[in-house]
Amino acid sequence: MSKYDNLGEYLGRQGHQEIPMTFGDIEEVTKVKLPPKAQHHRAWWSNNPSNNVMTKVWLAAGYETSQVDMAGRKLVFRRVASTALQNRGLSDWSRTFRPREMGAASLFGALKGTFTIEPDWDPAKPAVADDLNIGRTADLIDSGLRAKS
């Protein structure tokens, strides 16, 4: 039994995908004052299960922390329960970071969410605009070299 179990129960009772909370809200739910590291170090709120006892509680409840604002003393708990994976495609599931399944040293998924592919982006469209004539310039250079030979 952890002193933070009340937070896990609270999160479990919520039916929302995202639960915004202040540090004060968390202290009110847990009836425990947050440690100084939680109030001054962003890393304390990471979703690494070996980070601290409280991390294990919110992960076990099916949530991860996001939008951590240290200056504003607030964050958002976002639901990541396995039921969310059932409604996603295979490609999304395979990109989901699962450290327990892959071992702690794996970097698979470490960059998840760092870039976005726009919905209207066409992967078949050339990356360079046609009006730059890069291919034509290369043809001219190549033909010039052949003429001298």
Q: Any overview of this molecule?
A:
With 149 residues, this protein is α+β, with helices and mostly antiparallel strands. It has one domain (1-120). The protein has helices at 5-13, 23-30, 36-40, 53-60, 82-86, 90-94, 99-102, 134-148; strands spanning 18-22, 63-69, 74-79. The chain has a three-stranded antiparallel beta sheet with strand order 1-3-2. Helix 1 runs parallel beside helix 4 (53-60). The longest helix has 15 residues, at 134-148. Mean pLDDT is 77; it is low at 83-88 and 90-94.
List keywords for this structure.
149 residues; alpha+beta
Topology:
Blueprint: H1 5-13, E1 18-22, H2 23-30, H3 36-40, H4 53-60, E2 63-69, E3 74-79, H5 82-86, H6 90-94, H7 99-102, H8 134-148
Antiparallel strand pairs: 1-3, 2-3
Helix pairs in contact: 1-4
